[in-house]
Amino acid sequence: MSTKPFNIGRDCRVVLVYDGSRIDLPTVTGFNAQQRTHQLTSNPLNDMPLFYDVPGGWGGQFTFQRDSAGADDLFAAIESGFWSAGTVVLGSIYQYVTECDGTLSTYEFIGASLQLSDAGRYQSETLVTQTITFTARARNRVS
Length: 143
Known about the structure:
About 10% of the residues lie in helices and about 55% in strands. The chain contains one helix and eight strands; from the N terminus they run ββββαββββ. The mean pLDDT is about 95.
């Protein structure tokens, strides 16, 4: 097995699971995630300041080509569920990264609240790209 010197975007796959079902988004074109923290600061009288970053979840987004009604149907169901029963179910996002040595790392973003932050722009002769933004409780390594 050969190794690569660094990761590129093609080394990442993303899968969305919501209410126990996999949501098919076949052509994911971009993904990013950022850890959120809350910084605590201590200013002792007899020493230099101390800083502590307390984990506060994760946020991010992914973009994808609109290949089907999967995302539109998901968010229509989320909205309908809220207005009919007052509930919002949280989902999970799985990120699969092929490492430089060829091994696979899997991360799960748990308790993900989802927003269809861009439902797409429809214009002649162009691809329709949609964006989902998420906030998750935590990011766990699965394998």
